[in-house]
Protein: DinB family protein
Amino acid sequence: MDETGARAGDERSTLVSVLEAQRDALAMVCAGLSDAEMGARPVPPSALTLGGLVGHMAEVERAWFRRVFAGEDVPLRWSRFPGDDFGFAGTPEDAYDAWYDECALAREIVASAPSLDATGRHPRRGAVSLRWILCHMIEEYARHNGHAEVLRAAIDGRAVTVDR
Structure:
């Protein structure tokens, strides 16, 4: 969808467009970095890496769209249980591919949902609508994209500004 359509579109189109913009922002921050740079810990004493952050987002995509909304019985990739380190331990070598795959599967799940009112079941929160999940995912990306921008600037001084 073009940007004008997303800004003037219906609720579903708008939410999906904003989520895609957040996904694009994370990809732009990581673009051009080597595995070593993705695994660097440039902001001590934090152990946060861009590879770990991308792995975390893969885990979050998998948990909310596949496990909670679609009810798929798929294991988490890196976490032993929800809330553990939730993917931050992912390695740069596998994190980006996992994230890309989970985003693609999430897009299919969202596209096939009958409405934003369709619900999935979270083990602690109970019923959650697709609308709520999309809003939560936008929040999750927005928070971590800020972290990603700081990490990228500390790695190579490149400031990535995403204006969509």
User: Anything to note?
Assistant: Residues 54 and 70 are 22 Å apart (CA to CA). The mean pLDDT is 88. The two ends are 13 Å apart (CA to CA).
